[in-house]
Design goal:
heterodimer; A: mainly alpha; about 85% helix; B: 8 helices
């Protein structure tokens, strides 16, 4: 009984700290998501280019990123590059690390989407005089939405949870602030239950938005 | 570049044995968490597909909650949170239990999809010849479902192998923790973390390669 009483007594203070931290979690996730989409699309498009060198470089990037932990990538960006004189702030490192990591996964999703479109579509667009890029932009990519949107929204939910690990480079998001609160108050169980509930609420809201977005974007496709 | 590689020439003989020993712990953690996730995930999947409403509700609740929170939060709850109630784990078992219970939710969805992919006629036929529901599940449905779930199970295993790195945040002795220690004692984080990443890659790529061949074979032959 003491247990919940102590959580209740401290709740206003906990929320005062953790809600702005949740804002930071969302900002990091959003920044990484945008970076992952842009870079992932670029990687997917580069794989359609018929140049073995480019293809080799892109495939290597994707395989290496997908074969190593995101935490290792984050440490290389934050601690490793600092050794070479390139010092990112924790937030920059978090967005860059999660974004460059996600790009490899999204590139595979986008590639599968592009490959799912019949080659005749591209040929027809080129025949009527579109440049390859315009054909990709106006003919092929819009048709991939059906295939691409559901896994991409799933990725966004996974990304939201993955932001928890950037606390390891001291980015001031939920997990990092929670740890500080625990050191301050010693109420570890209460604080981490509260943290779990906050992540759960954010994930469920994001899942709800995702399902609606999927219905709207894929219905027209 | 030369100076960069010189660091390896000087330290590789000292670092590599330590990191490889730690990678052994990473593998052990992965296997133990996988077994736990497999067992709990199977029970959850069967509960979610059962005809008993409270069982379904509990299983669905567990799966939704676990999939909605980060693995790191689960590790913190088990490692720091349970200590408040006098349940004290070492970091390594805490990581195994945390990653296993978290992974069970994902595993359950893989199993459920696998079981649902088997035509209902299979179950009906097994019941008709007099098998009990559990026996039919054990001897008729699950063996067929295993084929379907094998590739996603392997992918889960690869993801789990990489996720064990998160356990370093609660100081569980595995590859990433060793790398962090070496990085801070040598002041050469770039070289150490690149080496650690290469070891992860060496562990995950063979499994990924085999999985893809398996998937290619399945998609050619079956379904």
């Amino acid at each position: 009984m003491h247990f919940w009483q102590r959580l209740w007594d401290n709740l206003p203070y906990f929320l005062e700290v953790l809600i702005p931290a949740a804002g930071m979690t969302i900002r990091i996730a959003a920044g990484a998501f945008v970076l992952a989409i842009v870079l992932g699309l670029l990687l997917a498009l580069l794989q359609t280019v018929k140049a073995p060198v480019i293809h080799g470089v892109v495939r290597t990037y994707i395989e290496v990123i997908r074969g190593t932990p995101v935490l290792a990538q984050l440490f290389i960006l934050y601690f490793g590059l600092a050794e070479l004189g390139l010092q990112f702030t924790p937030i920059q490192a978090a967005i860059l690390g999660l974004g460059c990591n996600g790009a490899a996964y999204l590139a595979e999703i986008f590639r599968a989407g592009i490959e799912s479109i019949h080659a005749g579509q591209m040929e027809a667009a080129l025949t009527v005089g579109m440049t390859p890029l315009a054909a990709m932009r106006w003919v092929v990519l819009p048709q991939t939405l059906n295939v691409v949107v559901p896994p991409t929204t799933n990725y966004s939910i996974a990304l939201l949870k993955d932001t928890a690990i950037v606390s390891a480079v001291a980015a001031p998001e939920i997990m990092f602030r929670a740890r500080n609160l625990v050191m301050e108050t010693y109420l570890s169980a209460q604080i981490y239950i509260l943290v779990a509930v906050m992540y759960l609420v954010m994930s469920l809201i994001l899942a709800f938005i995702s399902r609606r977005l999927e219905r709207r974007l894929t219905a027209s496709g | 570049m030369d100076a960069f590689l010189d660091v390896y020439r000087e330290h590789l003989a000292e670092w590599l044995p330590q990191l490889i020993a730690a990678a052994g712990n990473t593998l052990r953690m992965t296997v133990l968490a996988f077994v736990l996730a497999f067992a709990v995930g199977l029970v959850l999947a069967l509960a979610k597909l059962s005809s008993i409403a409270p069982l379904r509700l509990v299983a669905s609740g567990y799966i939704e909650v676990m999939r909605g929170i980060p693995a790191l939060a689960v590790l913190y709850l088990i490692y720091f949170g349970l200590a408040d109630f006098g349940i004290v784990f070492d970091a390594f078992p805490a990581a195994v239990v945390g990653l296993g219970l978290n992974g069970a939710a994902y595993m359950a969805e893989i199993f459920r999809a696998g079981i649902e992919s088997i035509h209902v006629g299979q179950m009906e036929a097994a019941l008709t010849v007099g098998m009990r529901p559990l026996a039919a599940m054990r001897w008729v449905i699950l063996p067929q479902a295993l084929r379907v779930v094998l590739p996603p199970l392997a992918n889960f295993g690869i993801a789990l192998l990489k996720d064990t790195s998160v356990a370093s945040i609660i100081s569980a002795p595995e590859l990433m923790l060793r790398a962090r220690d070496l990085a801070s004692s040598s002041f050469q984080p770039m070289q150490v973390f690149l080496l650690a990443a290469a070891i992860y890659l060496a562990m995950s790529l063979p499994v990924a390669f085999l999985t893809r061949r398996l998937e290619a074979r399945f998609s050619r032959g079956h379904v």
